[in-house]
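Ticket closed. Logging final result for ABC transporter.
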Amino acid sequence: MTNHDSAVTVRDLRKSYGSLNALDGVSFDIGRGETFALLGPNGAGKSTAIEILEGYRDRTSGEVTVLGTDPGRGGLAWKAQLGIVLQSTGESGNVTVREQLTHFAGLYPNPRDVDEVIAAVGLEAKQKTLIRKLSGGQRRRVDVALGIVGNPALLFLDEPTTGFDPESRRQFWELILSLKNEGTTILLTTHYLDEAAHLGDRAGIIAGGKLIDIGPIDTIGGADARVPLVRWVDRGVAREQRTTEPATLVAALVRENGGELDGLEVVRPSLEDIYLELVAAYERGASTSSATVGGSATVLEKETAK
Ligand SMILES: Nc1ncnc2c1ncn2[C@@H]1O[C@H](COP(=O)(O)OP(=O)(O)O)[C@@H](O)[C@H]1O
Ligand SMILES: [Mg+2]
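Final structure:
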């Protein structure tokens, strides 16, 4: 099966390490130009999946195409279209930032301008510094720079901003959004759900080697998981109610109360709230029975509909 609109197709992907099923039948597509966030707790199988797509790991079974090619058989021309930022590399070489990037740029047929890449990752002031003398966050920027210097059609980012300070993270987001605007397809894993929400078009949530939800970021968890929550304090007692009509509820409460409400808040669950519910529901299901994906989604709906 080939879908020319897809940069990546994954069908029933499985990977076993001995008796451990690290990937237990995962299927998804990534469209060309799309940013797809693969989310899940530590050990869920994210890096295993990414590294199979990159051609770094063999799969046990399943069908995979990346830019139309089986990654197990991808040659140099295929590899040159990929940009790869592994979860842990931490370039530690005895060369400067500029030397390393210039060297790598020379390996690609259509590289980006090295100065532009250095500026894009905010390493202008450090370009003549030996990589081993950089801080962890600065080395991570070198990893990202090496990932984009080849002008990739498809960029893999495995926890790219772990260890960044908030300001660097925002700068990195700008960079990723500009690559996205240029049409780069991006597969991102991150533990920062705000990062996934800011950068991603769609997300897949993986737990225990299974995909437990997938869809556009603003539909993950289903509509019921997104129903706003009105909170207020009534004579010293904290109250909360979920409602699709929060303004109507607040107006009624104000009328009843004859004025302003103490501690009034109207909150919409964030991607992080929804993600935590989904993973917790999956883990409850996994520990009591061999619950299915549908089973854990049902649990979530019941809880959020209260
Ligand atoms: N080379 C390996 N040999 C044995 N087990 C591995 C290997 N790589 C990963 N695993 C196991 O596979 C599971 C998934 O790991 P990984 O893909 O790194 O998860 P994630 O990136 O989501 O944290 C974990 O239980 C991990 O311990
Ligand atoms: Mg990982």
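The first strand starts at residue 6 and ends at 17. No further action required.
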